[in-house]
Design brief:
The chain is mainly alpha-helical. The chain has two domains: 61 residues, Homeodomain-like (Arc Repressor Mutant, subunit A); 162 residues, Arc Repressor Mutant, subunit A (Orthogonal Bundle). The chain contains twelve helices and five strands. A hairpin with a 2-residue loop joins strand 4 and strand 5. Helix 4 packs parallel to helix 8, helix 7 crosses helix 8 and helix 10 packs antiparallel against helix 12. The termini are far apart. It binds a DNA duplex through helix 4 and helix 5. Keywords: Chromosome, Coiled coil, DNA-binding, Nucleus, Transcription, Transcription regulation.
Length: 304
DNA sequence: ACAGCAAGGATGTCCTAACT
DNA sequence: AGTTAGGACATCCTTGCTGT
């Protein structure tokens, strides 16, 4: 190779991490230009920053065989604590305790019939599509989330297979093609129809933000809280019911869920129609602007 | 056309296990 | 204990895409 390898110092890594926190991942040039980090990262290019960030993400989430071997060695020497949350990604500290926490906190994902599934009993059967939607929703990035951030989110939450990035790329491409995601500037946003089908699976209606061109965002925590409180209330009711009453209540719940689904479907159609309206309106506005500009220029030419 | 970025290939470095 | 082979990781480099 041409240039000799320059190992990253902890100071450089810290500057990179701080830069990403401040400007976001993908803004490598901006981070380099930031006077706060430019002196520390003066020997690095934007590509170096990108590569290092990639490596840091891999080290923090995807455990290579070297780490596995180390962990196996340690496992044989002492036992682990198992009640800690996994740390933030990417992790710069090579602190042993944090490494252990990540392994313990990771939720394994498995591939079955070409679909990515979570092996955790709570969420078994979840598909990669759902995870992607969850990631984009949770990241709450105004202009959408790029592939790296989506991958990092999922890898942070779940233990992913080694070829996860490739699977994710293919899935994102597929979702963008079939219209479930909208890709703008390498960033992905959720198409309204995808949100409604996601919500339908959760049997909860989202709060619509009116006829807006921006995709409707569903607050995951709101859904979770709503579902939990609803379930708690239902369970409390059911404890006091007879078998017949419980059966009747269940039938009513099914009917309500079906009605909600139909309503959601209708709302999805409306949202899509609204989007089309907005596009048409924008096209009209642009045409009007062009006409006005032309008239203005003609007037200028005629009247001086 | 140019700049900036992501993706992926190429290659040096490090680590571990096996062997002597 | 020293050496070596193989694998994994870290970094550099190239290419193609996208936006201005």
């Amino acid at each position: 190779m041409g240039a000799p390898k320059q190992k990253w110092t902890s100071e450089e890594e810290a500057a990179l991490k701080a830069g990403v926190v401040k400007h976001g991942s993908g803004k490598w040039r901006t981070i380099l230009k930031d006077p706060e980090y430019s002196s520390i990262l003066s020997l690095r290019s934007n590509v170096d920053l990108k590569d290092k960030w990639r490596n840091m993400s891999v080290t923090a989430n995807g455990w290579g065989s070297r780490e596995k071997a180390r962990m196996a060695l340690r496992r044989s020497q002492h036992t682990y604590r198992s009640d800690e949350e996994s740390s933030e990604c990417p992790d710069l500290d090579s602190d042993e305790e944090e490494e252990e926490e990540e392994i313990v906190g990771a939720k394994p994902l498995t591939i079955s019939n070409g679909m990515l599934q979570i092996a955790s009993p709570k969420q078994s059967g979840s598909r990669l599509e759902n995870l992607i939607i969850e990631a984009i929703t949770s990241l709450k990035e105004p202009s959408g989330s790029n592939k790296t951030n989506i991958a990092m989110y999922i890898e942070d939450q779940y233990n992913t297979p080694p070829n996860f990035k490739r699977i994710l790329s293919a899935k994102l491409k597929g979702l963008a093609t079939n219209g479930k995601l909208i890709k703008v500037n390498r960033k992905y946003r959720i198409a309204p129809s995808a949100i409604f089908s996601q919500v339908r699976r959760n049997s909860v209606m989202p709060v619509l933000e009116g006829r807006h061109k921006e995709p409707v965002r569903v607050e995951k925590d709101d859904i979770r809280n709503l579902m939990k409180s609803q379930i708690d209330a239902e369970l409390a009711k059911m404890r006091t019911m007879s078998v017949q009453e419980a059966a009747a209540a269940a039938a009513r719940a099914v009917a309500e869920a079906e009605a909600a689904m139909a309503e959601a479907e209708e709302a999805a159609k409306e949202a899509e129609a609204a989007e089309a309206d907005a596009d048409a309106a924008q096209a009209f506005a642009e045409a009007a602007m062009t006409t006005l500009k032309n008239r203005y220029t003609t007037n200028l030419m005629v009247h001086g």
